[in-house]
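Q: How would the structure tokens look for this protein?
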Amino acid sequence: MVKITPSRSLICAAVASYISFAIVSAGYLDVSTLIHANKQFCLTEPIGKEMYTHITIHPYDIKKGKGLGVVIAEDGGDKPIFEEANLVNHLSVSFTAVHGISVICCIAAPNYDVYVGIAIKSGADARDYSIIAKSSHLDPVDAHLQNAIDEFSAFHKAQITGSRSMDRTSKKAADAYHLLTKFAIANSAFVVISTLCFILYFRSFFLSKKVM
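A: Here is the predicted structure in token form.
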């Protein structure tokens, strides 16, 4: 029997109030593809900065001694997160993004065609809440609530990051506007000064010719 406490009720109410929001702070990509002999298949998935990411690779019908070449790297990183020249078994890799641009997963087939399943999860989708529930002694309701809280937390971070990006863009636009304003003022001043110089020059010229 699940016990409903006041604090849990408040959390449930908060979760319910946010149900209408589209959660874009977590991602899930699951594909299966055929990679032809001696060919390479690369998959790129956008991820957020400091976002927990989990990648699994399932090779099918691998021949003994002739596995896949796998390289997993973060865009902007100095070195690969994972690199293997002869993968023959199931692969599971977890990491926290440092740069927050995208993760690149490249798989090279050996000298025969091979089917490969690839799953990339990020944010709350990457966490196994069944394991968390067992290790933390949580009941199913608490596990689902923890999942929702993690998603909202990641969503809030994404909003803050987006807001900062918009602020930087607005500042650049304001700086460009101020620079353009200064240029327009300088251009107007140049036109006025040039006009006065021409007037004085022609006045002096006509006076010297005794036209005026």
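Confidence is low (pLDDT under 50) at residues 1-25.

Helices lie at 6-17, 129-136, 140-208.

Upvote if useful.
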